What we know:
six-stranded mixed beta sheet, DinB/YfiT-like, 16% strand, alpha+beta, Four Helix Bundle (Hemerythrin (Met), subunit A), metal ion binding
Amino acid sequence: MPSSRSGGPLPFLDHLAADSSRFRTVLASAPADARVPSCPDWDADDLLWHLGEVQWFWGEIAERGLTDPADLDALDAARDARPSDRAGLLDFFDRSSERLTRVLGGLPPETPLWMWADDHTAGYIVRRQAHEALIHRLDAELTTGDRTPVDCRLAADGIDEVLRVMRGHEPDPDLTHVPVSAPVTIATVDAMHSWTVTPVRITGTWNGREIDVQRFLVSDGPDAASTAEISGSAADIDCWLWNRPTEGEIIRDGDAAALAAVDAVLADSID
């Protein structure tokens, strides 16, 4: 994780609290039916409910100390129905967000908790939720037209997470991966870090189902085998990887086929 090697570990809990607060402030003044341009199927109230539900869910995981996926079924019985008005939605979000930061803040990072990713710890849940709040804070700001800057180190860590966890692939004996293009370097112009990704097609049986998807093999730094490079600020690359609009320009140079293969991986929604 690049942020840990320059300037020490990131204060993910502080970022989670700050971006959740900004999200709430922005949406509190937005018309309920205002469309979210980065999530066109949602209006402002849908976005408010979505992040509230996400933070409620992980707050339940953390507060109950759940580690077994079989325990997740019990969460459905505890879910609140969606409130019918803005005041109810804000109250639900406030309670969910406060509990999430409070409970996670009281757990050692190594605390085992259920997580869909390979890292089953409270520390990763804090990291994941910091990035969740960041992206949806941006969605809220795009809804009202009041966009604010993204922290460079947090964005660089977001790039690392989205490449490795959300869109990455670790070789697995039950799965076959075949490169579909030459490697491509993704470089930040302000965070002093780069990654090399190789788009691969993955086939096989995973958890009892047949899969056929495209993902990245990821390594740190540039690679002499790269035939193309994508560069920009850390904030813009993080937004681009999440299919959100950038503020600055992202430069794409080199082999068109390799760049198209990267785009094909990103076309698979992860929202």
